[in-house]
């Protein structure tokens, strides 16, 4: 495998900042109607909120495009709100809700559809667009009902049922559980090419812009890596998965629960689908089923380095042990040495975001997998396999932090030398000479 630029594929395409609140959002019930005559999405969102403190105000992220009709309680009491800063909504609770441990709020608002329009007439609404009221770090169940003209298709997270209405409209009902991020895509059924395959008991749906180069390579990489992760870590938690080419150029690729998104820009940046497809597919297991805690130290290592090492294990599984050694030396180490400038390296623990600098990205995508390989060599093959499966099993549908990961290393490392080695490599800058690359 030739050395090439290491991938910077973002699980979250952009950081969204929210102040910590004393609330948790436990469930969403969302109704969306696309009104093409006024070119608006008319939205009602019901939030089930659990409250852990006695404060009377809290903040949610919501798009500044939202024209809010009202916010109300279930008994139709009007709840005051204002936007203290762009995309941040402040809610003031009435006295009787302040003391409630659990309550429901209903948000009614309209979003201008064209603000979310990309090429080919597709509407793209991602969490980063704050199209629904949210805070980071919540894990929730959701139902999303979206009604559109019957020549349109909608995609969201989870599983879908369709209801045909009598007036040339169609309602798609999307349901998901243990979700941390909701996206919604609406497009004309004629604008995309559709393929479908069943792999390891899951239906994989492919939506591509007609004429996609490497279509067959992408499909075969999705199928083989999906099979590897299903066999190694456990059956996929949904009965469907969607791979969607987004006709936009402001991001490369992104993995959301049940959705792999990519753009033509990603194919230009990384022409070989073998480099990005297995990484993105792996995120269905580590990233979307086991969810990195976005507020905890080591978040990028947990979200990206573990997953990138799983990709290396997939390469090893398909092409043999020499390929693992080659990817460690000729890709990760070679890229790290080529890209990280003298004196500019940071420690893994100090990475604020992989988007900050090439050095921080290399620390996570190149050094991170090398560090995990040292832990594997220290633990031994059988322990490593049990360890990684155990982490996946125990943190399924939950947040995982670096501290949790360390506690699990200890369970397979009774003398503590693997954890000591791991801690040293996390804290120190650079890549020391005496490491294992096979
Ligand atoms: Zn990633």
Q: How far apart are the termini?
A: 15 Å
Number of helices: 10
| Overall 3D shape | globular
Mean pLDDT: 94
**Main sheet: strands, sense, barrel:** 7 strands, mixed
Structure in words:
- It is a single chain.
- This protein is of the alpha+beta class.
- It folds into three domains: 23-191, tricorn interacting facor f3 domain (Immunoglobulin-like), CATH 2.60.40.1730; 193-288, Neutral Protease Domain 2 (Neutral Protease, domain 2), CATH 1.10.390.10; 292-427, Neutral Protease Domain 2 (Neutral Protease, domain 2, Orthogonal Bundle).
- It is built from ten helices and 20 strands.
- The strands form five sheets. A seven-stranded mixed β-sheet has the order 4-7-2-1-9-12-11, with no helix packed on it.
- Strand 15, helix 2 and strand 16 (240-245) form a beta-alpha-beta unit.
- Helix 5 (299-319) crosses helix 7.
- The longest helix is centred in the C-terminal third of the chain and has 22 residues, at 358-379.
- It is globular and about 65 Å long.
- The model is unreliable at 1-18 (pLDDT under 50).
- The structure holds zinc ion.
- Zinc ion is lined by residues 9, 11, 279, 283, 304, 307.
- Zinc ion binds at residues 9, 11, 279, 283, 304, 307.
């Amino acid at each position: 495998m030739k050395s090439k630029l290491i991938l910077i594929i973002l699980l979250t395409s952009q950081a969204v900042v929210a102040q910590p609140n004393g609330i948790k959002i436990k469930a969403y019930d969302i109704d969306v109607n696309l009104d093409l005559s006024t070119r608006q999405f008319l939205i009602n969102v019901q939030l089930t909120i659990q409250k852990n403190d006695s404060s009377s105000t809290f903040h949610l992220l919501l798009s500044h495009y939202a024209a809010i009709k009202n916010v109300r309680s279930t008994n139709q009491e009007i709840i005051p709100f204002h936007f203290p800063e762009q995309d941040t909504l402040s809610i003031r609770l009435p006295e009787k809700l302040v003391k409630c441990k659990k309550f429901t709020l209903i948000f009614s608002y309209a979003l201008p559809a064209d603000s979310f329009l990309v090429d080919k007439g597709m509407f793209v609404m991602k969490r980063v667009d704050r199209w629904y009221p949210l805070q980071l770090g919540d894990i929730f169940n959701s139902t999303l009902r979206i009604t559109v003209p019957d020549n349109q298709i909608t995609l969201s997270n989870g599983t879908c049922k369709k209801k045909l209405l009598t007036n040339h409209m169609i309602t798609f009902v999307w349901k998901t559980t243990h979700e941390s991020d909701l996206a919604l895509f609406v497009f004309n059924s004629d604008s995309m090419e559709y393929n479908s395959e069943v792999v390891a008991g899951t239906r994989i749906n492919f939506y591509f812009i007609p004429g996609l180069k490497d279509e067959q390579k992408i499909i075969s990489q999705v199928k083989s890596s999906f099979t590897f992760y299903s066999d190694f870590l456990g059956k996929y938690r949904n009965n469907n998965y969607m791979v969607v080419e987004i006709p936009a150029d402001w991001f490369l690729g992104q993995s959301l629960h049940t959705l792999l998104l990519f753009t033509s820009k990603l194919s230009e940046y990384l022409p070989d689908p073998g480099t990005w497809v297995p990484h993105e597919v792996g995120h269905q297991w580590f990233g979307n089923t086991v969810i990195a805690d976005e507020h905890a130290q080591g978040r990028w290592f947990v979200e990206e380095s573990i997953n990138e090492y799983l990709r290396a294990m997939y390469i090893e599984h398909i092409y043999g042990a020499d390929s693992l050694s080659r990817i460690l030396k000729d890709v990760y180490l070679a890229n790290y040495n080529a890209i990280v400038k003298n004196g500019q390296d940071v420690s893994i623990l100090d990475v604020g975001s992989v988007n900050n600098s090439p050095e921080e990205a290399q620390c996570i995508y190149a050094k991170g997998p090398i560090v995990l390989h040292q832990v594997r060599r220290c633990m031994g093959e059988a322990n490593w396999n049990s360890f990684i499966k155990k982490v996946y099993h125990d943190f399924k549908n939950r947040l995982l932090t670096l501290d949790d990961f360390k506690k699990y290393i200890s369970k397979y490392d009774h003398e503590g030398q693997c954890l000591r080695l791991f801690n040293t490599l996390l804290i120190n800058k650079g890549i020391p000479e005496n490491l294992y690359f096979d």
